[in-house]
Amino acid sequence: MGFVRRVAIAGGISAAVQAAPAVASIGPLRRLALPRLAGVGAAEHVALTFDDGPDPASTPAFLAELERLEVRATFFLLGRMLAETPELGRELVAAGHEVAVHGWAHRPMPLRGPLATYGDLARARDLVAAATGQEPRWYRPPYGVLSTSALVAAARLGLTPVLWTNWGRDWTAAATAESVQATVTRGLRGGGTILLHDSDCTSAPESWRATLAALPRLLELLRGHGLTVGPLRDHFSGRGAPVPARAPGLRAHGRC
Questions:
Q1: What parts of the chain have a pLDDT lower than 70?
Q2: Distance from the CA of 12 to the CA of which of 4, 104, 170, 182 falls in 20 to 30 A?
Q3: In order of start, what are the domains of the chain with their CATH numbers?
Q4: What is the pLDDT of residues 16-40, one digit of tens each?
């Protein structure tokens, strides 16, 4: 076998190893094979999480609405956004919310090497801790796509990767309060983790408004089914029973 071919094969193997964890981005697969990574927690609890903030144009409105609704959430912060408005990170913690790491820049992890990946996560983790006074526990990669380098870096930094079981597709220009609610509750059941966005920095302009408008009805629906809604720190705290194999959902059909 020639040298060039050996190098090509080695490079292909290396790329495959780096990208292998990306299969966890397939929702049904990760819920079945990796429930903890998917965010499956206590059966009577639903974790409410937001990505891409903090954003001075939108996060304050979410702070006010969540306070009115008397619910706390986990916010996965982008380092570059927090660097611009560290006071918003402090406000999130002061209001009782949990802060977590979404990375520094919103770039796909499989396209980055080990050193760049570690630098991205470490820089974001350190800023979240310094700016908010709260040591982050959780990590969610951009687009929900992991890499081997991201998993190794997260482990070194003491961060636990958590994705989601349900999302609202709230980043699109076509999103409405009704579409966000219908999408996020499709197949949702106790023990699930909801992904929404409190910023449009990587989404369609003003798309966060649909998310904000969906929150009151969404909380009413979840509470009406006897579910407690809160941050990830409560979701995995052991306060509730684990999710049974066939936990009841909000609807009898459909999966998100």
A1: 1-33, 238-256
A2: 104
A3: 3-235 (3.20.20.370)
A4: 334 444 445 555 665 666 889 999 9
C-alpha distances in angstroms, 225 versus 2, 122, 250?
64, 39, 7
32: which 2 tokens? 């079945």
The residue annotated as part of the active site, out of 97, 102, 197, 235, is 197
Q: Is the peptide bond before 60 cis (omega within 30 degrees of 0)?
A: no
How long, in residues, is the chain? 256
pTM assigned to the model: 0.85
Distance (Å, whole) CA 232 – CA 76: 11
DSSP bridge pairs for 125: none
Question: What is the SS3 assignment for 194?
Answer: strand
Among this protein's residues, is 234 annotated catalytic?
Answer: no
Q: What confidence score (pLDDT) does residue 202 get? A: 95
Task: Specify whether the CB–CB gap between 170 and 207 falls below 8 A.
Answer: yes
Q: Which of 45, 51, 55, 200 is catalytic?
A: 51
**Interacting residues of 196 by C-beta distance below 8 A, sequence separation 6+:** 48, 49, 50, 51, 167, 168, 170, 180, 184, 211
State both tokens at 173.
């220009």
Q: Tell me the helices (H) and strands (E) count for the chain, helix number first.
A: 11, 8
User: How do 228-230 and 160-161 pair as beta strands?
Assistant: unpaired
Identity of the residue numbered 91: E
Specify the amino acid at residue 195: L
Q: What is the DSSP letter of 71?
A: -
106 is catalytic: no
Contact residues for 181 (Cβ-Cβ < 8 A; gap 6+): 168, 214, 217, 218, 221
